[in-house]
Amino acid sequence: MEVMVNTDGEGGSDGGGGDPMSVDDNANAVVEMGVGVDQGKGVGPQHDIVDNDGVMEGQGAVSNSGDEMGKRGYGDEAETEEAATVHGSKEGTEELLRKVVFSEEEAYKLYCDYGHRMGFSIRKGKQSYFTGTKRIRTKDYFCSKEGLKEGEKLTDANFNDPHTRTNCKAMVRFRVNDQGEWKVIRLVSDHNHNLARPEERHLLRSARSLIAGRSSSVEAMLYGGFQTPGAACQIPLGSTSVTNNAETSKQDLLPCYSSMARTPVIGNGDLQNLVRHLKSRANEDGMFYWDVQIDRGGRMTNFFWRDGRSRIDYDCFGDVVVFDSTYRLNKHNLICAPFVGLNHHWQGTMYGCALLADESLSSFVWLFKSFLEAMGNRHPRSIFTNQDQVMSKAIEEVFPNTCHRISRWHIQKNAASRLGALNGSKAFNKLFTKCMQGCDSEAEFGETWAEMLSEFKLEDNKWLKKLYKLRQKWCGALNKHTFDGGVEYEPQCDSLSNIFNCIADKFTSLSAITVAVDKLTEDWREKEFDEDMRCSQKPPACIIKHSDILNHAAKVYTHRIYKLFETDFLDGCGATKFKELQCEGSNTYQFEMTMQGRGSRVCTVHFDMTTMQLNCSCSKFETMGLLCPHALKALSIKNVCSVPETYILKRWTKDAKKWGFNPKQYESSYRECMDDEAAYCNHVMHYAYDLVVKSQGHEELRKSLWETLESGEKELEKYLENVTQYALSYVPLERSID
């Protein structure tokens, strides 16, 4: 007798939505197998079937496999070494059918590799055991769009949606023999839905799970309570910093992960584990960067690190940086300070993290210089921090051309403790918020500030006086021409502030906090992958289906940014009054715009149709990188049916990273790479690194990349050989002339 257990979603990343083949984690995918099985009514005489929670089948998703199996019981295929049964196309199945593996993990990876080559994602299915043992006899894996979600109707609109199951029949069955060999005995290769295109396949969820396996082992070590060894970690004391030390073997990684809350203070051992962890990360990631500052006594004081992907993200989205130094570890009295920003989906992205011994000028200067070095000396356009005078001086020294802003969340947090009962006043909060973000001009800010002080008798409040002196760093009306990417809007303001409060206890060890940062970073990147996949499948639905400008925006922008654009378009075209003013020149126009229901505020738009130049007094494009409702109204009035190319900010587009990696996308960037050796090396290394990351974990992609590199190497060698032969033939000729 064989006992079958549903392990749907177990062990992989494919339980949730996010790619075209993803499914609902909470639905128990049930496979109908056995003799005379009716849907949801038990099983045949050969087998007992239960799902992960011991619930009998018939709940959640409806299976597809009963009609496939006919009358044969689960796992009842003949024991003879005959060829596997294949239903459907045999294209690309050779390796899957031929290869023998020796574990469940290897079987899962083998089918994942096949799925990745073909363009679909994988889910784990049922398994049967040898009677009276825990030894697996047969194991099924399905396309992630197997079955149907309960209550969901399939339509043309949702059939290829990433979150929709389509009752796809594709599956594979492995059998394990007495020697522990896993072989494919059944394969259904045809799908009833679109497969991912080659350029999208690295985004498939189960394909990513092969890469994420290393992170899972990190978590296991983190919470497994590994003990700290007493071996010392040697740091050269003759220098002021140590960068990118990558000498430690992977075995040295294990002791780094002490239990977060249970590990006692271990002094130097904690520093040793931290350094081991950073060195091991550098071993694994060729673009990993870390730096440590050593004081005159040879003691390690400050740390900074970032991985290779963070450098890539910074190259694409590093125009705005949020630096939070308010989180302090009680255990060591160290400051945990992340550098974060926003990606093209308006989501959080990690640029690096620091551990600081103090908040001195020298510590901040060292950190910001280390950050700049790690990011190729590219300065951000804006940096948001807490209200710290010493940090402000360090920013002026290291980032002289960067606009320094004080974060809104930090001001509001301080207001809670500085203004007491006033924080409960809606009238006060309305005026205070308007001072920060709601004023259109410096004059309006001055009037609103004076009104707030007068109405609530705050003229002598010392904190507000100090805050007013720093108004240039936090008042939106005084920063209308500085790009901030909307980082101060909800919910970005909340999601990027105090991020460590969500991931670690204040008594966490140093090595554990680095793992916690890795975990948070991985979670953010997983969300980015999901959005990338969603954007690659289809454009967002336009609320006005036949609007040319909305369809154009939906084609170029990511889904999240498109929705912001669409809201402004509707506000502009449906809720804006305008007055056209006379201008000199036949193709130059000026409009006065008034938003309905927004008071009497008037915004002025200048539009030159010859050059397609737009300028609005609200300055939303300058700060956010998206056209405002007033500008979109002007385009509508003049029957402009697409977003002018000048006003499509690359960082908000679906192809934001492609533009960042490949300078050939723009002639000016390409010329810079060809003319400047340093720029050429920088772009090529990052471009190649991105290709390596995409191919990691997939055998076919790795082979393809190797073949491409070898082909390129042959071309280079051939060229260099020709140059050498030419040089050798030229020298004698020159001598004969002499």
Automatic annotation (TrEMBL):
Molecular-function annotations in GO: zinc ion binding
Domain SWIM-type: 603-639
Family annotation (InterPro entries): FAR1_DNA_bnd_dom, MULE_transposase_dom, Znf_PMZ, Znf_SWIM
Amino acid composition bias (Gly residues), ranges on this chain: 9-19
Record flagged with keyword Zinc-finger: yes
Region (Disordered): 1-20, 61-90
Keyword list, A-Z: Metal-binding, Zinc, Zinc-finger
Pfam families tied to this protein: FAR1 (PF03101), MULE (PF10551), SWIM (PF04434)
Record carries keyword Signal: no
PANTHER family with a match to the protein in the record: OS01G0519700 PROTEIN, PROTEIN FAR1-RELATED SEQUENCE 5-LIKE
Name assigned to this protein: SWIM-type domain-containing protein
Organism, scientific name: Zizania palustris (Northern wild rice)
